Amino acid sequence: MIIIYGGAADTQDTSQLRDRVERLIRHLGPARLVGGLVTDAELMVAAEGLKAGREVLAVVPDTRDAFRAAMAAEHGDAWTRTFDQLLDAPRLTLRELTPGETLLDVAAEAAGDEQQWLVTIGPRDAEPAGEAVRDLIARAQQRGLLTLDLSPVRREQRAFVVMPYGSKKDAESGAEIDCDCVFDRVYVPLLEDADLDWSRADLGKDTGIIHPSMLAELANCDVVLVDLTTTNFNVAYELGVRHVFAAASTMLVGPHIIELGKRTPPFDIAMSRVHSFDRGLHLTDEQATEAIRKLGPVLELAVAKAEDDSPAHAWFAMVERSAPLLLHNEVREREARFADAHRRVADATRFATILDTARWLDTAGLGTRDSQALRIKLGAALLGIQAYAEALQLFDRSQPEVGDPQHKIWLLNTVMAYRRLSEQTGVTPQEKLAHVDRAQRLLEKAVRDGYGDSETYGIWGGMIKREIQSAGLPREDPRTRELFTAMAEKYREGFDRDPSYYTGINLLLAMRLCSPERDGRFHDEFTEIGAATRLFANRALRWDRSDVWARLTLAELALHQALENTAPDLTGPAALYLTAFRTANPDQIASARNQLEFLRTYDSFPTEITTLLGHLDQR
């Protein structure tokens, strides 16, 4: 998907708009953004795209120097500083328009066969920027493009999304259905285009607790969108609550999953109007486009409260209740504190804001479990930006009891923090061994506590790999061979329990390094696991074209296959690594390099792998 952007904001405070743009880019995961650099809003969109690791193609009407001089004269030093900072970014490319060429022409050329969505920021005033935005929207619609228009300020109405999250198994067919792809690429852009202030009913995903504040949202939100994909008890419960308390504006959506055939809504709501759209097990950009076009008018009707849609509300004759429905004072205050804290934690994405939010939690007046859950979430955010020591400090203060839904999340995140610390340059051998030992003990505890799944065994295999690195023994040493065998056993255990591209690619690595003999049995297993790993990685990319880990897996798979030849040609793997690195964050690049350096030490072709690493360093 390619996002074309343009427009201008007519408000001085753009913090809300910036948050919406950041969230939209994060959920859509476009391959590239194409747009101008004229207005503050356009500069902001380009900056948020770069922060998200996306390629940005900035289109200007003149040469760089002439454009910069003209805009500096009109907008001053602040614009110039921002422009110069953006042009220093490695993922931004400046494109000068040729005579007769338009922004949409450039975007079409850059997109090729990919879908193009236009995201505009529309000011309230009609002239002059408002007219330019309307003209851009009209020309995009003439080309058949989907258009999303964000007002700089949201409406006052609130929306709530009720749906299953993550991957859920279909009760009838057993097929795995990715629910988040519809949330990310249909519901989020749909709600942003409508300028609604929205949230999603998945607080239980973060805390393991269904909070009364969620019930207040169900009762009081202007619109509740309910996704009926899969048989999900949480969704059924939340829909029932909404129908009791609200006469109108409950929008039922039952996606038609093509591979599963025609399905009818559950009997209990068969008489209610359920809106549908076609999607596959893997949602394509084309299907997302058509879904938004189909559901847009339905959402506007729901916002207008044009139709009563709750049989339960009519039955209980609750039209006389006063709105909004209020919680008991003590509960309301506690839940308001938690909701505010949850929003602050979700918005904390940078090092300074994460630490500030963690300190703020100490005085937020939350309960123990709520504080633990939010500190774990902040610690996970610190892991994502390589602040491993700071993450451990938060995890040390947030250990839940065994049996708490957050316990496994805490335990495995803590293991990952110790693992990453052991990989850092500058740590002493003693510190490295201490980090590895602590992580190993936690993994043993995870199995004792009942968490012996693919994720746990995958992390365990990685810890054994770090032990091999720390030992520094030659490949021929019996202890090295013993550790390689143990590593393969852990990855195989994880792959057998729940096959994934992560355990698959690491099992292939372990097999190659612990099996000096290349007999028929080895080749059969290597081929079988390689095919399954490729399947899982390609499936992940169909769900999310920006999945860097899946791209790195395909690159490493090509590398392993090439290294099985007597004279390996690494041109193909190098190209795949470079493609993945273009959108990878520093942690992902460091992880890929660590894997390659491990191979260089223990594989039979260190010279070729050294050349590959040098090629990647020149990217």
Describe this structure in words.
By secondary structure, this protein is α/β, with parallel strands linked by helices. Among the domains are: 2-150, Rossmann fold (3-Layer(aba) Sandwich), CATH 3.40.50; 158-326, 3-Layer(aba) Sandwich (Rossmann fold), CATH 3.40.50. It contains 26 helices and 15 strands. Helix 13 runs parallel beside helix 15. Residues 203-209 have low confidence and may be disordered.
In short:
With 619 residues, the chain is an alpha/beta fold. Among the domains are: 2-150, Rossmann fold (3-Layer(aba) Sandwich); 158-326, 3-Layer(aba) Sandwich (Rossmann fold).
Assess the beta-strand content as a share of residues: 5-15%
The residue ranges in which pLDDT falls below 50 over 5 or more consecutive positions are 203-209
What's the Cα radius of gyration? 26 Å
Instruction: State the CATH class of one domain.
Output: Alpha Beta
Task: Return the CATH architecture of one domain.
Answer: 3-Layer(aba) Sandwich
Shape annotation: globular
Average pLDDT: 86
Can you give the helix content as a percent range? 55-70%
Largest sheet: 6 strands, parallel
Strand order of the largest sheet: 4-3-2-1-5-6
